[in-house]
Amino acid sequence: MWHQIEQSISEYTQKPFSIKQKHLVAGGDISQAFQISNARQSYFVKVNDLNFVDNFNAEAIALQSLALTQTINTPNFIEVGTSKAYSYLILEFINFSAPSDISWYQAGTQLAYLHKASSQPMFGFDDNNFIGKTPQFNRWQSNWSTFFAEQRIGFQLELLAEQDIRFGDIDEIVGIIHNLLKPRKLNASLLHGDLWRGNLGFSHDQVYLYDPACYYGDYETDLAMTELFGAFPAAFYQGYYKVTPQESGYSTRREIYNLYHILNHANLFGGSYIEQAKQHILSLSEL
Ligand code: ADP
User: Fold this and answer.
1) Is 171 marked active-site?
2) From ligand 1's centre to the CA of 235, what distance in Å?
3) Cβ 44 vs Cβ 25: under 8 Å
4) Which of 162, 206, 246, 263 has its C-alpha lying 20 to 30 A from 11's C-alpha?
5) Where does 2-6+17-92 sit in CATH, by number?
6) Which of helix, strand or coil describes residue 182?
């Protein structure tokens, strides 16, 4: 596999590349990550089982979709490949370092410009992808409340029901979410889709987004997720809202949108996320 990776990089750069150093990179929770280097260049490689190749292809498509907007940095995509036993994703290596307040502000403005960049009339994406390890379906849909209620909340509830975890009648819960989002009028934005602190980094005071789960939807879903596990620094929101001021009703929608990620965590990790999901659904049904 490593020889194949050397060849892919050599073809991509049009210069011979052979690995002189290989280090594990910490921080991922799904794949093994490596920094590989020769005397001049480093590359970032994620490795997983062979059957993970669909996930890597989806990640590559998402990274390239973000890059096409030319609004915010992402690591350059080099190649997805497979060997007999493994699949891998090769990206440009970014040397991350601690951000300053001004770079958080700029990250906020750049995310806002990403969200404003699209003129997509529908909600969804050309490809299905994954949120964490969970499949994420992106069938095109003209109605946002239907899209989110069915393909985000309904689907997660069905996966939980397959594990015998139920919070009530699925159609009823989907109906509640649908009704709550019905008044929302919006243009579809290209979303990062999994925007927690572990999926962005800074290098030379420039933000880089990685590990995306892109689709076209409500930009507030990205903002909501930044607040789910403890908010980003205030400068980030100052930057964002300077470009796109906060809309009324956001704090309620934030709770609706974050239910998706709480349900996904309940699906992936169980434990206290199940109780959190139950309480979250209860409070939404009382709105
Ligand atoms: P996983 O899919 O396993 O969760 P991530 O894509 O989140 O893995 O990457 C794992 C870690 O590797 C991140 O937390 C980040 O610190 C680092 N990382 C991600 N992309 C790059 C990159 N292009 N260059 C350097 N480091 C990276």
Assistant:
1) no
2) 24
3) yes
4) 206
5) 3.30.200.20
6) coil
Give ranges for CATH 3.90.1200.10 in the chain: 101-285
- pLDDT tens digits for range 63-112: 999 999 999 999 999 999 999 999 999 999 999 999 998 999 999 999 99
From 169, 194, 205, 218, active-site residue: 194
Q: Which residue's C-alpha comes closest to atom 9 of ligand 1? A: 28
**Which residue is listed with tokens 């990776």?**
5
Name the residue of 31, 79, 210, 265 to mutate for ligand 1: max ligand atoms within 8 A of Cβ: 210
Residue the block writes with tokens 């919006």: 186
Query: Which CATH superfamily does the domain covering 101-285 fall into?
Result: Aminoglycoside phosphotransferase (APH), C-terminal lobe (3.90.1200.10)
Chain CA centroid to CA 146, Å: 21
Q: What is the DSSP string of 78-131?
A: EEEEE-SSEEEEEEE-----PPPHHHHHHHHHHHHHHHHS----SBB-SS-EEE
Residue 194, Cβ neighbours under 10 Å: how many?
A: 23
Say whether 221 sits in a helix, a strand or coil. Answer: helix
Number of other residues whose CB lies within 10 A of the CB of residue 275: 10
Q: What is the pLDDT of residues 44-71, one digit of tens each?
A: 999 999 999 999 999 999 999 999 999 9
pLDDT for 253 beyond 90 = yes
**In angstroms, what is the span from residue 157 Cα to ligand 1's centroid?**
29
Ligand 1 center from residue 260 Cα (angstroms): 23
Task: Indicate the residue type of 273.
Answer: Y
